[in-house]
Design a protein that fits this description.
The structure is a single chain. The chain is of the alpha+beta class. It folds into 3 domains: 2-84, Uridine Diphospho-n-acetylenolpyruvylglucosamine Reductase, domain 2, CATH 3.30.43.10; 89-219, Uridine Diphospho-n-acetylenolpyruvylglucosamine Reductase, domain 3, CATH 3.30.465.10; 238-302, UDP-N-acetylenolpyruvoylglucosamine reductase, C-terminal domain (Uridine Diphospho-n-acetylenolpyruvylglucosamine Reductase, domain 1). It has helices spanning 2-13, 44-56, 108-117, 133-139, 180-183, 202-219, 238-244, 273-291, and strands at 18-22, 34-41, 61-64, 70-72, 77-84, 89-92, 99-103, 120-121, 142-143, 146-147, 152-159, 163-168, 189-196, 198-199, 251-252, 255-257, 265-267, 300-302. Strands 6-7-13-11-12 form a 5-stranded antiparallel β-sheet.
Length: 309
């Protein structure tokens, strides 16, 4: 049924819709088998059109930006990957209220740097976030004691029935590393976000970015990874728990739990999704058995992992 509907989608979207594209090239962990279809969207109009066509034809799809929060199965994904490249950023820096309006495919750290250049403060913490604005809004991304809920004023959402809607901060029902969109897997796409910032000076804002960047270099590993793999449990840190059960440096194939920070899994080159998934399961089981704590993934699994461990 999917293949029949995919044929209809291809008639509408044409050659932009590619088939059997390996996701290893589009995720920060550099693993993942082929998607049934792959569709880049360079503007919000293209993103909106593609999503509406896929919804109307009942073809499953997933929107990705930088691919930093996904582990795609070695078997791939039986649906369409919609690559969001809509990245325009508009900054109001001349008068109050000072705001940053960013399309969902923009790299989140770019907001911090462009705001700082204009002497605006409040989003310096975002410089270390590897993903896009859409992913950050979806997952309530955070760092250095702050998160999306501290800055977001409004998100523009595309819904298959209601069309385009402006959601105020409260409607996203943010919790730690979570929104109502993520928790309930709602059928909707984030198009853009409007963020509040404060007037400062270029020197002060850029100094804070530099300070956060230096801290990140000291505490987080280099190499292909998701960033954090698990959410931090209440009152504790996932990395501390994984280190405490002796898993720092543990490897399956070419995937390793980082020696620098145990909540990072590193692909040293040639790792499979199965290797990474095995490390995830091992960490969850060992922490649960030792401490009675159920680690919750910060990333999402895409595809079939039933036999991948």
């Amino acid at each position: 049924m999917i293949n029949e509907n995919l044929f209809e989608v291809k008639k509408i979207l044409g050659e932009k819709l590619q088939e059997n594209v390996r996701m290893a090239n589009y995720t920060t962990i550099r693993v993942g088998g082929p998607a049934l279809g792959f569709l880049p969207a360079n503007t919000l109009d293209e993103l909106t059109q593609a999503a509406n066509v896929l919804w109307q034809n009942q073809v499953p799809f997933k929107v990705i930006g930088s691919g930093s929060n996904f582990l795609v199965s070695d078997k791939g994904y039986n649906g369409i990957i919609l690559l969001n490249r809509a990245h325009n950023i508009r900054i109001q820096s001349n008068e109050s209220p000072f705001t940053v309006d960013a399309e969902s495919g923009a790299i989140f750290g770019t907001l911090a740097r462009q705001s700082a250049i204009r002497g605006l403060s409040g989003m310096e913490w975002a410089n270390s976030i590897p993903g896009t604005v859409g992913g950050a809004i979806y997952g309530n991304a955070g760092a250095h004691g702050s998160d999306i809920s501290c800055n977001l004023i409004m998100a523009t959402i595309l819904h298959p029935i209601n069309g385009k809607e402006n959601w105020p901060l409260e409607k996203l029902q943010y919790q730690y590393r979570s929104s109502v969109l993520k928790r309930e897997k709602l059928d909707a796409i984030i198009l853009s976000g409007l963020f509040g910032v404060e007037q400062s000076s270029r020197q002060e804002a850029q100094a804070r970015i530099l300070s956060y960047s230096e801290k990140r270099k000291k505490t987080q590993p280099e190499g292909a990874s998701f960033g954090s793999t698990f959410r931090n449990p209440v009152g504790d840190h996932a990395g501390r728990l994984i280190e405490a059960v002796g898993l720092k440096g543990h490897q399956f194939g070419h995937a390793m739990i980082s020696q620098v920070h145990a909540n990072f899994i590193i692909n040293s080159g040639g790792a499979r999704a199965a290797d990474i998934y095995s490390l995830i399961c091992l960490a969850k089981n060992e922490v649960k058995n030792r401490f009675g704590v159920e680690l919750v993934l910060e990333i999402e699994l895409l595809g079939d992992f039933e036999d991948e461990k």
